[in-house]
Amino acid sequence: MKRKWYDWRHVYLWLVFLLLYAPIFYLIFYSFNQGTTMTHFSGFSWQHYAELFADTRMIEIVLDTLLIALLSSLIATIIGTLGALAIYGIKKVWLKNSILSLNNILMVSPDVIIGASFLIFFTFLGLRLGFSSVLLSHIAFSIPIVVLMVLPRLSEMNHSLIDAATDLGATNFQVLTHVIFPFITPGILTGYFMAFTYSLDDFAVTFFVTGNGFETLSVEIYARARQGISLEVNALSALMFLFSLLLIGGYYFIEQYNNSKKARRRNRTEARLIK
Questions:
Q1: What is the pLDDT of residues 44-94, one digit of tens each?
Q2: Which of 164, 161, 206, 177 is nearest to 81 (CA)?
Q3: pLDDT-derived band at 5, boundaries 50, 70, 90
Q4: What share of the chain is helix, strand, coil (3-state, %, to 5)?
Q5: In angstroms, what CA-CA distances link 137 with 22, 46, 120?
Q6: Could you tell me if 122 and 138 are in contact, meaning their C-beta atoms sit under 8 angstroms apart?
Q7: Domain boundaries along the sequence of the chain
Q8: Concatenated DSSP letters for 169-205?
Q9: DSSP assignment of 197-253
């Protein structure tokens, strides 16, 4: 009976992966189509990739999108990490829970509401819509993500490590840089990659706050879809999917390197104790 349940779980898992990845591989498959539609594969060709790299407007939009994602995730990671440290240090339970609730509200709020709110706010301030408005809005909705990624690592940290460092004469800055940051680094990296991903594929918020000729990839694809999607978009989707795989692979190898480094350090410590 247990064996059947185990097998059914695997079938369900494969069905979920199939539903998630089948449309992506469908797009990638037809990006190599010699024709111009996704109804008939007429032959293998790199034609649409050549058209993509010849489209200077699309390349510029891709670079702008990556720049927004990199800057917003970096700034949001810095602010979110400091915010998580501040929340962790709050002693009053009601105050901590109140701030966490406010943080979580931004996570569950509809993107349309957030985008409209930013549009009204930027218009009230007289801020010109474009690069700066998109960057600020992406930083704002990425900060709660980083906070939620870093806080669990802080909660897992043994407070006796901080007490021991303080007893040994470490300053607050040394405790922060030599004890706390090394322990929460996996949470910080996870928060950065999550913020980067959210920024990269955001459409609803960006659609409200973009303007003056500045567009991100999601908004441009939406605009082109209304005119009929060309297979150039398929080629771009394939490259973006490959880029995502490289990011995930890089994060995996960084995690493996950190874990092996910790294991070697632990082994050296145990060897010294045995001697």
A1: 888 888 888 888 888 898 899 999 999 999 999 999 999 999 998 888 888
A2: 177
A3: low
A4: 80, 0, 15
A5: 32, 37, 12
A6: no
A7: 57-274
A8: T--HHHHIIIIIHHHHHHHHHHHHHHHHHHHHH--HH
A9: HHHHH--HHHHHH--TT---HHHHHHHHHTT---HHHHHHHHHHHHHHHHHHHHHHH
- Looking at residues 27-50, what average pLDDT do you find? 83
- Give me the amino acid identity at 177: T
CB 71 within 8 A of CB 131: no
What residues form DSSP beta bridges with 131? none
Whether the Cβ atoms of residue 41 and residue 53 lie closer than 8 Å to each other:
no
Torsion from C-alpha of 114, 120, 123, 128, nearest 10 degrees: 20
The rounded distance, in Å, linking the Cα atoms of 47 and 235 is 9
Residue with tokens 């990638």, as numbered in its chain: 28
The CA-to-CA distance between both ends of the chain, in Å, stands at 51
Cut 0.70: pTM above it: yes
Rounded CA-CA distance 254/258 in Å is: 6
44 strand-pairing partners: 33
CATH topology of domain 57-274: MetI-like fold (1.10.3720)
Q: Residue 33: phi, psi to the nearest 5?
A: -75, 135
| CB-based contacts of 189, cutoff 8 Å, min separation 6 | 251, 254, 255
pLDDT category of residue 269 using cuts at 50, 70 and 90: low
Instruction: Give just the sign of the alpha carbon dihedral 124, 129, 134, 135.
Output: negative
Crossing angle for the helix pair 217-225 and 231-274, to the nearest 10 degrees: 150
Tokens of 104: 């979580």
